[in-house]
Design brief:
By secondary structure, the chain is an alpha/beta fold. It has five helices and seven strands. A seven-stranded mixed beta sheet has the order 1-3-4-2-5-6-7, sandwiched between helices. Strand 5, helix 3 and strand 6 form a beta-alpha-beta unit.
Length: about 200
């Protein structure tokens, strides 16, 4: 897929204020500091489109971007930000859950996971919640250039082993690197295919 344009549309405090749901939408989510905004910028080849920050937990709204004037990317607040207050975490959780369950044009959720860490319960539990609610999603392992090829293979095997205990099969997964643009074409190809399916 060729990215011809990528434009910021709006930031919303809840799903009811998101843009009219007339186009296919793909949302990106993950723990704070997983590299979500950087990955979005890499996908659309626009530095600075999604705002990045050195301090985690800065994305506190649902940010929408219109791609090729045809489909949306939604940049969601990160989950599990420990430094947020309990009240703020509850607010973010409600915002995220409401969006995921109520956004009618959401085609797929991309769940970002830092490939440098062993599988974390917070990521596994979040994906189980998605499956229990029949939310289509794919896994995106970020910062994979920091690992050797052997270590990257081990990451996938570890998740496959853990998820096989409760899942019939592991969701589709991508190995990505913003620095090296790994995974860009593969993710865009999947999105292009899903867009075509929605048109048929």
């Amino acid at each position: 897929m060729s990215i011809r344009s990528a434009d910021f549309v709006t930031s919303s405090v809840d799903v009811s204020r998101c843009p009219v749901s007339e186009r296919c939408e793909y949302a990106f989510i993950g723990r704070s500091n997983v590299g979500k905004s950087s990955l979005i910028n890499m996908l659309v080849n626009r530095k600075g489109l999604a705002k990045t920050a050195t301090q985690p937990g800065k994305t506190r709204l649902i940010n929408h971007f219109l791609i090729n004037e045809e489909w949306y990317i939604a940049d969601l607040p990160g989950y599990g930000y420990a430094r947020a207050s309990k009240a703020d975490r509850a607010l973010f959780d409600k915002m995220i859950h409401d969006y995921i369950l109520k956004r009618e044009n959401l085609v797929c959720l991309f769940v970002l996971i830092d490939s440098r860490h062993a599988p974390l319960k917070i990521d596994l539990h979040f994906m189980e919640w998605l499956a229990e609610n029949n939310v289509p999603f794919m896994m995106v392992f970020t910062k994979a250039d920091k690992l050797t090829a052997t270590q990257r293979s081990m990451v996938l095997r570890n998740y496959q082993r853990l998820m096989s205990e409760r899942w019939e099969s592991m969701p589709q997964a991508f190995i990505t690197s913003v620095e090296k643009s790994w995974g860009r074409e593969e993710i865009l190809e999947v999105i292009e295919g899903l867009n075509k399916l929605s048109e048929s």
